[in-house]
Amino acid sequence: MHKKIRVIFLIVVMLVTMVFGSNTVFAVGGVYISEYVANDNKDIDEGDTFTLNLTIKNDSSSKIENVMVTFGAGASFQPSSGGRDVPFAGEIAGDGGTDNESFELFYTGDADKNLPITITYLVGGEEKSVSTSIYIRNAEPDDKTGDTGGNTGGGSVDTKEYQPVLEITSVEIPEGKAGGIINIPLTISNMSKYEAREIRITPELPENVFIVDQMT
Question: Is 132 exposed, middle or buried (0-12, 13-18, 19+ CB in 10 A)?
């Protein structure tokens, strides 16, 4: 009888995992990603830009503020513009409060479908963070190489498929005085497997505060 009960329990657990395990992240208490949908569950091919919808749930007893998400460096999925640190919500209420946000990501085509995400937030002015990972199962790595449209020499290459993913991975802003000159060193990393050439940087700075003298 005990063996039969254990077998039934295992079957129930397996069925629950099969039904809910695809786009739901389970957690007990705290702050976590409760649901996610990538590209409306449609296939994501190498080089595609797609929308990722995230829902964050706060099961703690306190509200959280200044919620940010950070997408993992070196992952197969990277923000299509901007950096990896992205604002999520100004505030999420406690005791089961939720909020959702959409992000535009670029798929590099690598085989790893796991996307590490770190959630950073404030509780009573104290910064806290939690790290998790979601699995984007509808990503389709492209194992084809040298395909230019057939054996007859016709067709064209979709250059979007080979788009490099660049991000600023290190930045130090030194102190400066009014009217003085400061040098801001930047470290730019290529997170994809494709080479990037002739890189140009266009700074976005507050007007009447900084004057860009030169960029080397």
Answer: middle
Dist. CA 115–CA 137, nearest whole Å: 11
Ordered by where they begin, the domains of the chain are 22-140 (2.60.40.1230)
Spatial neighbors of 66 by CB under 8 A, at least 6 apart, are 90, 120, 121, 122
Per-residue pLDDT tens over the stretch 21-35: 346 554 445 999 999
Q: Is residue 32 within 8 Å of 132, Cβ to Cβ? A: yes
Per-residue model confidence as pLDDT tens digits over 187-207 = 777 766 566 665 767 666 666
C-alpha to C-alpha distances, 159 to 48, 55, 162, nearest whole angstrom: 11, 33, 5
* 0.70 surpassed by pTM: no
